[in-house]
Amino acid sequence: MSEFKIDVKLKQVIQNNMTFTYTIRTALRSLRTNKSRSFLTILGIVIGISSIILISSLGAGAQNLILDQIQGLGSKTIVLRPGKEPEGPSDVAQIFSDSIKLQDLNAVMRKSNVPHADNIVPVVFGAATASYGSETYSVTIFGVSESIQEIFDMEVTEGVFLTDDDVRGKSSVAVLGATVKEELFGDEEVIGKRVRVRNQAFRIVGVLPKKGQSLINFDKAFLIPYTTAQEYVFGYKYLSEIIIEADSDTTIDQTVADITATMRESHRITDPEEDDFYIETQADLAKSLGTITDVLTLFLSSVAGISLFVAGIGIMNIMLVSVTERTREIGLRKALGATEKNILQQFLYEAVVLTATGGVIGIMLGITFSFLISVILSQALNVAWNFSFPIGATIIGLIMSAFVGLVFGLYPARKAAQKSPIEALRYE
Predict the structure, then answer these.
(1) Domain range annotation of the chain
(2) What burial class does residue 34 get, using C-beta atoms within 10 Å of its C-beta: 0-12 exposed, 13-18 middle, 19+ buried?
(3) Beta-strand (E) ranges in 24-134?
(4) The overall pTM is greater than 0.70
(5) I need a surface site. Which of 93, 259, 269, 387 has the fewest CB within 10 A?
């Protein structure tokens, strides 16, 4: 008796496997019969999945590039900026605040106030046009001091860097970024020659090496003493920002606290809500920019996801047409013993196979395009834009494509399964 039960169960398993295999083969045969329709049906899935993969990969690449650039600025770097900390697009005007003045710089530079500050660089910056002979070029003026060389690890390839004597004497001397030198002088020798900026002649004393695109593009920089920038170029006494380098990674928080206390005392601020300055560390900057890129990637992926919804509706429409066209086939299969479950499975498998195929193709295209675009961006922008393989997006893409087929294929499959065999055979 027990052997009989085992034989019956084994027979059922074999029968179920044969039914599943036959249903899959029937579904594939039907899709091959209508190749053009099948291709057009999965096109929307391909576009949607490849877009999500592409956006996710490029978003991760951009985030990695930004984080690398931030780390290149030094983990111990702290930036003191004027105005209240921006919390939205409406606060952009804060960057033009004049709340940081020379008295604040002197207060921060006192060792008794900020004992863990290793290097302090006042910065004044703005855009201008530099000219030499008949050549002109738009540059970014950086009014700085000699200490910036240590913070950003600057070494001139020609001449010398700015000195503290240049700052004290408000000297009209400049160090050029590599791109500025190429645009104005080409292959000429530049040391000792004069470039005019806002009717002021600057003697070139040094040239920086080419570093490529970064958060601070020193290739297009025109570095001059900050005192000269205030007096002769911009005509104001306040500072755009102050860059402070802590003496250790472990003293960053203490240094931030010391700078905050010093600025509040200098500005006679007792209520923190009234702060007219804000401080940003590299960790803060990395977190902020990382959040921005994550939100942007999620938004663009959501937009791309809409195409998957549209593609799902297209699949439902095509499957309903297919059910109508194959009414007699459905009736014949039911007359030969096929159950509603068999018919439901066949049409559902067809929808899932369509979308899963589109998902696989979309993933391969998305990864291929992501890699090619990463290479192109690296060459075009001269940055280390590395290809990032989006494992999470790839898994989500496969799941989403199968899910779309399951959801949007269910209704047409049920319509097919519920057809009466007699009425189906009479259908013309």
Answers:
(1) 27-68+289-426, 98-275
(2) middle
(3) 77-82, 117-132
(4) no
(5) 93
